[in-house]
Amino acid sequence: MTKVTYIDAAGASRTVDAQIGSTVMETALRNSVPGIEAECGGACACATCHVYVAPEWTAIVGKPSQMEEDMLDFAFEVRPSSRLSCQIKVAPALDGLVVTTPAKQG
Amino acid sequence: MSETVTTDVAIIGAGPAGLFAVFELGLLDIKAHLIDILPKIGGQCAELYPEKPIYDIPGFPVVSAQGLVDNLVLQIQPFHPTFHLGEMVESLEVLGTAEHPKFRIRTDAGTALEAKVVIVAAGGGSFQPKKPPIPGIGGYEGKSVFYAVRKIEQFRDRRVVIVGGGDSALDWVLNLHPVARRITLIHRRDAFRAAPHSVNAMHELVAEGKMDFLLGQVSGLKGEDGQLSGLTLRKENGEFIDWECDDLMPFFGLTMKLGPIADWGLDLHENLVPTDTEKFETNVPGIFAIGDIITYPGKLKLILSAFHEGALAAQKAHRYVYPEKKLVFQYTTSSTSLQRKLGVG
């Protein structure tokens, strides 16, 4: 099973099983991981599923699309490692992925 | 303050749930007014993802969110609903009794509505501006931090900082530029999701030295008694700079908050309104709730569920609006009286 680890703004870490093909946002919601709101339900339309990808994973996860980069304008404290977790699809290559959630989403 | 308008049903929220409720009510000769905080019809569908395809509306293999809204508006046209857009319901007062309910609704625009039935179709709540988590920002809100412009004049001769890269940010840069002493736009990158002509106009003003554009994110505020004197900006290279200003306007889009609904005497469960599943009535007789804002065992936040909920709520609403009339169930395919109402008979 593919694992994804979410670290919240206070430093608490949660590792959950993720289904291949589902998104990092869906995986968080399905496992009641706090810190991700996903108000729009995964349409890349609200920037409330903002995460920071851990440094060792940024190259593998890749850069946001143009639409996602635009939507990141509506997120707070955006960094070069910022992504919207509804736009990251879980794949075997992402087994062990670590993301951090920001202090505030919306 | 305007006079009180009287109607049968006041629907709070003009998304798909509220729109289709107008149809179901209309078939039963019940008139409706809709109120929405957004300046346009369609709720989340129109505000968040108008271009996105929806695949689970029965009978439509695919329809865009805006397309669905447009079709619903067309579908309810025969019933002439009245829309109060860009208005937030501030208070909901119970005037009648449980058997003969009556309510008075007031909005922040001064509209007063009296209705026998209220249907809360508010989805995720009301859309409100996102507030950036800058330490201490709450203490400046309303005095020198603003999320919307009420009067342009209040910014005359002020040093105004606008944050954001969308149409709201760029529009206010251009609109406030003539009155403000100095406008500064702050954005995290040198790319904008705003209309290109606005972006070009902004770049021209910067090139002519008539305003400033800074790359970075606001990390701190300085001031006294709610009045800003300046802010700290974190640039992309991690460097901090101080910038003097009188007013700050962050534009980070909208988020959904429950808002005043929490004060209307409705039972709430984790920011959702519990209803029964027979008529989708809340704990307050005469106040119904449908769509994403409600919860009941097995509830699914689907548009099709909202349609069903609206249809059943309308049946019970009929008893409140026409207590003396017996309701006979009819089909639009065969009933000449329904077809007359729809303007097709």
Structure description:
The complex is a heterodimer of chains A (106) and B (345). Chain A has 106 residues and is α+β, with helices and mostly antiparallel strands. Chain A has one domain (2-100): Beta-grasp domain (Ubiquitin-like (UB roll), Roll). Helices cover 16% and strands 22% of the residues of chain A. Chain A is built from three helices and five strands. Chain A has helices spanning 24-30, 58-61, 66-71; strands at 2-7, 13-18, 50-53, 82-84, 97-100. In chain A, strands 2-1-5-3-4 form a five-stranded mixed sheet. The longest helix of chain A has 7 residues, at 24-30. Chain A starts with a strand and ends in a 6-residue tail after the last strand. In chain A, 43% of the residues are buried. The model of chain A has no long low-confidence stretch (mean pLDDT 95). With 345 residues, chain B is of the alpha/beta class. Chain B has two domains: 4-127 and 255-341, 3-Layer(bba) Sandwich (FAD/NAD(P)-binding domain); 131-252, FAD/NAD(P)-binding domain (3-Layer(bba) Sandwich), CATH 3.50.50.60. Chain B contains seven helices and 20 strands. Chain B has helices at residues 16-27, 43-47, 65-76, 167-176, 196-207, 303-321, 336-341; strands spanning 4-12, 32-36, 53-54, 63-64, 82-85, 89-94, 103-107, 112-120, 126-129, 159-163, 182-187, 212-215, 217-224, 227-234, 240-244, 247-250, 254-257, 273-274, 287-289, 294-295. In chain B, a hairpin with a 4-residue loop joins β7 and β8 (112-120). The longest helix of chain B has 19 residues, at 303-321. The model of chain B has no long low-confidence stretch (mean pLDDT 95). Chains A and B meet through loops of A and loops of B.
